[in-house]
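User: Could you write out the 3D structure of this protein bound to phosphoenolpyruvate? I've included everything you need below.
Assistant: Certainly. Input first, then the structure.
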Amino acid sequence: MTIETITGAVNGLNGTLTIPGDKSISHRAVLFASIARGTSRIRGFLKGEDCLSTIRCMKQLGVHIEEEQDEITVEGKGLKGLSEPVEVLYAGNSGTTVRLLSGILAGMDFHSVLTGDASICRRPMSRVTGPLKQMGARIDGRDEGNLTPLSIRGGGLRGIHYSSPVASAQVKSAVLLAGLYARGQTNVTEPFVSRDHTERMLKAFGAEVNADPENRRVTVEGGAHLEGRNIQVPGDISSAAFFIAAALMTPGSDLVLKNVGMNPTRSGIIDVVRDMGGDLEISRLREENGEPVADLRVKYSKLHGTEIGGEMIPRLIDEIPVLSVLAAQAEGKTVIRDAAELKVKETNRIDTMVSQLVSLGADAKATEDGMVIHGGSVLSGGAVSSFHDHRVGMSLGLCGLVSKEPVTVRDAEACEVSYPGFFEELRRIKS
Ligand SMILES: O=C(O)C1=C[C@@H](OP(=O)(O)O)[C@@H](O)[C@H](O)C1
Ligand SMILES: C=C(OP(=O)(O)O)C(=O)O
């Protein structure tokens, strides 16, 4: 168990930092490159534990992957070139790995078993195994195919028109990936638009993908041929969110974050913190490999509470833990609704954040589908736990910047999942 202690920042957070690679895009780059023909080179890849799990699984499926300091090289096997794994595929803590890889394995004429850590073994998988079974894959698992380990025997798929009950990019991506292997067309409709990295990247690899955001529907044609390519992964806005929040809530801060992905399906956090009164400037907005990227300058700001729900939720789903910390520092009330998906992440993020914030002296309550926070209480500090959830650990660490006593985060090693070196970086820019 690793413990991290964060003490107050007397002069705020200052300077410049470069945000590490986007986790969602890094996973997809390795997965899609593996089923493309030819060589792909990936720069800016996130070497967090989750993305390393994806690399490990693809190696077990026979893909040659070279990991160098600044570049990952993937020798693609073509759409159907993966080989039957001898061992169980282990996804660690990564829901994205299990769900997206299930979509690919559903297209393979062989048997594979996919599992992960204690948290993965609790997370619902029928949201992907259900539609994949409708397409013709044979999948089983505990709780009638809802829980890992999943046993998948794929092949012989037919296209479906799937209306997903949840706005989930993992569900959408799994079905679209299986759709590449299916006879005919496959489409997915979702209640709100979720992150669209799969659509953007599959198109770049040469697949026929049609996105119709107005109707929240994406269509792929079966029998695609993906061609290897070079990919530059932008910085992860979900990682930048911790430093955006830290700078906004700590007096004296003036921080520049470089290389932040600004995909509109991910940038809800920018809209919300501006709406709360946050001073955040966007500069050098540019497009790299079909994904918008910018630099951000964030200054300490007096924030007020806000209300969020509906289509905004998928645009900032992973930022809600850190948003709850910000809300506890803002003046007035913040209401977060329509966010029941938080209950099926690495932990139940509604309960873990509310219980730990309350233990630090915040006024926060869990609701059926979100939380209500009355901001402005001075936090006491003390010991909290990440509950082995990376986003919970990093969010709680930030409380130490403004609390009376330091904040100690137990099980802080969980943060390596998406942000290796997070606490060192926080200490570096804090004075
Ligand atoms: O597709 C992805 O890369 C992800 C989608 C989201 O999950 P859901 O699809 O379950 O909403 C998000 O929470 C997760 O961190 C990464
Ligand atoms: C929910 C997350 O990831 P995953 O679903 O891939 O475990 C996350 O990174 O916050």
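The chain has two domains: 4-18+234-429, 23-232.
User: Perfect, thank you.
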